[in-house]
Predict the 3D structure of the following.
Amino acid sequence: MATTEPDVDWHGDDSSVNHLRGRAFEAACLAATAFGLVSVLLLLLFVANDAFRPLSADSGWLLTYAATVLAPLAALAVYYYRLDEPAGEVAYVTSGLPVVGVLLTGGFAVMFIELLSILEWFALVTSLVAAGGLIVAHGRLRPNAALERLVVLFGAPVVTVLGTPPAQFNWLVTDLAAALGVDFGLYHRVISLREVLLRLPYVPTNWLLLLGTLVAPLAVAGGVFVARRRDSRRAGFAVVGATLVGALAGLVTGPALGIGYGGWMLLVAFVALPVGIYVEGVVRRREGVRGLAFPVIAVLGVAVGSVVVDAAGFAGPDSWLDWGFLTSATSRTAADAGIYPAMVGSIMMIIVIVLATFPVGVGAAIYLEEYAPSEGAMGKFVTLVEINIGNLAGVPSVVYGLLGLALFIRIVQWPQGSIVVAGLAVGLLILPIVIISAQEAIRSVPDSFRQASYGMGATRWQTIRQVVLPEALPGILTGTILALGRAIGETAPLLMIGAAASVRLAPNGFFDVASMMPRQIYSWSSELEPAFRHGVLAAGVITLLAVLLVMNATAIVIRNRYQRE
């Protein structure tokens, strides 16, 4: 007689106990996440309250902007979140693109004010183009002398950006060339070309130089992008033409609006061009079109609120963070203190970090992933190198400050506290992060892409340049931007290499002694006057956080966009 197994109730007590444990674990994780987010939010609100002092404004002023700006935008945000997620992403991007463009405009404006004249910018661009042409010609005449081209490739941009370098830099480059047995005449011809351009008896007007060396190349790049996306040359030419016409319109409309021709052209190149291309793509795809209403309502709300506030005579908040704070130097009195010189120093430090870290980090990642052997004694050595790169990513930042002090100040004898020393010291700090993120991006490219390229007869370098790098570029950019976000907020290396606590004049060169935003904020924290430790310090922190958030948001947008594709 066959016996049957008793039915087992898999949803009995034991199963319910496990289910309860899972729910408890989920609730604990949610509570921990919420606690962390709420804590950070409360801290930011506390700092923002000290920086903006909203309660010092009239109640009518607060109610007006709450009704014209906050309430409509909050309603739209809830609508996007619950009913139309693609529109929410469009609203986020169209609101963030102008902010990033304005920051780029401000950065280039600071560069033209403090570092380079427009003529020097023209000389820089021309010398870099000449260096590229010389490298191509040199490669055809001497195809086996790749080392000479490498020196020009990395040396010419650095020196043309740095301007006239100190004697120590010339000695270092000359000694390096002699040790490598490199003919350095090509390098000197590039630099001599820059000096000749700066001494020309006649050059075109500044607006024409700026149009030809900055606006036009960006317009062409935007036109090529649109032409490839839409498979229409006419659309590409339309983008180029509209950008150039808009830039030239600034010669008339700019002065009428109180904007110089240089500022107008920068706004067209960095704000109008990318926003126009993105909006055109959204309208053409008809996906998330409702998100375009978010920035429009924000601008209209601010405009309507301003009219109402002026008509009613409501007084606004007595904020520490205002235009005067962003454009003034620090002072002994809190009311007159500003962050402008430190902000310029941070921008220049980021330029040094990008020039020094990005090529080295990406190059090291390419070698480790594509060229380095995985077997034998050399393979073990490469494994050891990769392990140490991972360990270096966790080394305290103060150690890199000591390394910069010993290497660049004691040995190379560059000026203590100079921007180039600060940039290189902080660049060493984020170099392992750049290498690791670039390795992960390159590793994520499927091997089938490489095999298909090899099957079509491409060499390894052609495969890397035309297949691997284009696919890995979004991940590389994301990791690099996040690393730069960490670099701009570091303080310990700046203290170790002797960055100035505060300066009253913005630096004019990369070898000038300067202060950076984290160093200036640290200096304000030690002031005895309470207004410095609360109001001015909070304004500096919000300024630094705004830059960090924009950089991180840019990295997130790049990652999400290319992940979908």
Notes: Residues 97 and 387 are 38 Å apart (CA to CA). Confidence is low (pLDDT under 50) at residues 7-16, 157-169. The chain is about 80% helix and 0% strand. The radius of gyration is 28 Å.
